C-alpha cells in the first residue's frame, strides 16, 4: 500500500492528496505534526533527509519527496485521468502556473519561514502578516493576469478539468484564506477554485477531512 | 529563432541556459536588468506578467515562463541528450533534487526577497547574510545527505551525465559562492559541481560569459 507522510495543513501534502484522489489511488496516511517538529525527528528523516512533508512511500518501499516530483510520478504511472495536457506548450503552461505557486508564493510563506521571521528577525505579528500577504498578492496578481488573458484557461486553470496547476492553486488559496488575504481582486482565481472545490477529489483532500485535523 | 529573456546573474535564467546548451539548441538573448528593475517594465510584462526572468519565446512566438517548466518543455521537444532518466522512480528522484533547490533554497534568497528584508523589514547586512546562509545550509545539508546515501548518485547528481538536478544545482552553488557560504561541509556537492563545470555546456552558460555580464 502507498503511504503518504503528511500534515493536514501542509499545502504541499494537500497537493499530493488531491493528485492521488483525482487518480483514484488508495493510500494510507501517516501524520507528521509540523507544529510539534516531528518532521525533524530521526524516524522521519530516515524517510526524508529534507525534514519536509510530503513523502510518499510506494508499494515497493521507495520514498519519493517534493510534491511536484511526486505528482509527475503519479502522472507517469497512472496517466488517466491526466493532470497535464498532451501538447508540449500547453504542458509548459500548466507547469508554469504550478511553479508560480510552488516556487514563488508558497516557499516564502510556509511555517519554517514564518518561524524564522519571528524568532530570528524578531518581526512582530503585523509585519509577519504583511510579509505573508505581500507574496500572496505579488503571486496572485501575476496568476490572475495569466488566467485572464491566456486562451488556455477554462473552468479550471487550463481547460475545464483539473491539472497540476489546480492541484497547487487550491491549497494556496486555502492557505491565503487562513491568513485572511483579500481575494476580491482575483475573480478568476476564485471562480476556478470554487469549481475545483465542488469536486469530490478536492473535497476529500481538504485539511478538515484528514485524520490529524484539529 | 528562440529568444531567452534573462539576466546574467539570475539562477533561474542560468538553469535555462545550461539546458539549452546541453541540448545544443541555438538561442538569442535579450538581457533584462533586474537591478535596474527592467523586469517590472510594461514591455517585459507583456511577455511575462510575473515580471520574472527567464521567459523563453519560441520560434512560433509562444512565451514560456518558469525555468523548470521551460526545461521540461525542452526535454519533451528535444529528448536527446536527456535531462531525465527513463524510469519513473528515477525521474522522480531527479525532479525532487531539482525542486529542493528551486522551491526550498532559491525562492528565499533571490533579489526581490533580499530587497524586502532590507527595505521593508529594515534588516541589517549581517542579518541578511545570516538569512541567506541559513537557507543554503538547510537545503544543502539535505541535498548532501541525499546525494551521499542514495544509490542513484554518480559523477553527477543522478548517474554520470547531467540531469535537471545538476541544471539547478550549479547555479545555486554559484550563487552561494557569491554570498561566501562555507561549502566545506558538502564534499559531494562540490565534486558534482566541479564535474559539471568541466563541461562546455555549463561553461558557456556561466554568468561571466553572458552579453550583459558586468
How would you describe this structure in keywords?
homodimer; 214 residues; alpha+beta; Glutaredoxin; Glutathione S-transferase Yfyf (Class Pi), Chain A, domain 2; 2 domains; four-stranded mixed sheet; 9 helices; 55% helix; globular
Biggest contact: A-B, 47 and 47 residues
Mean pLDDT of chain A: 96
Q: What radius of gyration of chain A results from the CA coordinates? A: 17 Å
The total count of strands of chain A amounts to 4
Oligomer: homodimer
Number of helices of chain A: 9
* Largest sheet: spatial strand order of chain A: 2-1-3-4
Biggest sheet of chain A, open or closed, and with what strands and sense? Answer: 4 strands, mixed
Q: Per CATH, what is the topology of the largest domain in chain A?
A: Glutathione S-transferase Yfyf (Class Pi), Chain A, domain 2
Order of helices and strands of chain A: EHEHEEHHHHHHH
Number of domains of chain A: 2
CATH architecture of the largest domain in chain A: Up-down Bundle
Q: Any idea what the shape of chain A is?
A: globular
Topology:
The structure is a homodimer of 214-residue chains.
Chain A (H helix, E strand, L loop, with lengths): L2 E4 L4 H12 L5 E4 L10 H6 L7 E3 L5 E3 L1 H11 L10 H22 L1 H9 L5 H25 L14 H15 L8 H11 L2 H6 L9
Parallel strand pairs in A: 1-2
Antiparallel strand pairs in A: 1-3, 3-4
Helix pairs in contact in A: 1-3, 1-7, 4-6, 4-7, 7-8
Keywords (chains A, B): Isomerase
InterPro entries (chains A, B): Glutathione-S-Trfase_C-like, Glutathione-S-Trfase_C_sf, Glutathione_S-Trfase, Glutathione_S-Trfase_N, GST_Zeta, GST_Zeta_C, GST_Zeta_N, Thioredoxin-like_sf
Protein name (chains A, B): Maleylacetoacetate isomerase
Amino acid at each position: 500500500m502507498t503511504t503518504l507522510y503528511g500534515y493536514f495543513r501542509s499545502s504541499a501534502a494537500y497537493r499530493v492528496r488531491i493528485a492521488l484522489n483525482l487518480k483514484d489511488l488508495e493510500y494510507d496516511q501517516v501524520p507528521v505534526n509540523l507544529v510539534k517538529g516531528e518532521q525533524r525527528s530521526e524516524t522521519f528523516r530516515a524517510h526524508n533527509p529534507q525534514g519536509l512533508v510530503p513523502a510518499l512511500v510506494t508499494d515497493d518501499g521507495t520514498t519519493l519527496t517534493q510534491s511536484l516530483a511526486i505528482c509527475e510520478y503519479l502522472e507517469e504511472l497512472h496517466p488517466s485521468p491526466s493532470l497535464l495536457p498532451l501538447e508540449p506548450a500547453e504542458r509548459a503552461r500548466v507547469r508554469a502556473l504550478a511553479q508560480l505557486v510552488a516556487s514563488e508564493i508558497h516557499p516564502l510563506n510556509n511555517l519554517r519561514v514564518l518561524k524564522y521571521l519571528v524568532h530570528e528577525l524578531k518581526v512582530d505579528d503585523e509585519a509577519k502578516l504583511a510579509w505573508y500577504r505581500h507574496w500572496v498578492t505579488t503571486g496572485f496578481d501575476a496568476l490572475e493576469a495569466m488566467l485572464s488573458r491566456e486562451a488556455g484557461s477554462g473552468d479550471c486553470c487550463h481547460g475545464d478539468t483539473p491539472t497540476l496547476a489546480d492541484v497547487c492553486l487550491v491549497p494556496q488559496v486555502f492557505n491565503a484564506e487562513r491568513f485572511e488575504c483579500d481575494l476580491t481582486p482575483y475573480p478568476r482565481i476564485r471562480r476556478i477554485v470554487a469549481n475545483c472545490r465542488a469536486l469530490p477529489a478536492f473535497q476529500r483532500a481538504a485539511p478538515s477531512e484528514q485524520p490529524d485535523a484539529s
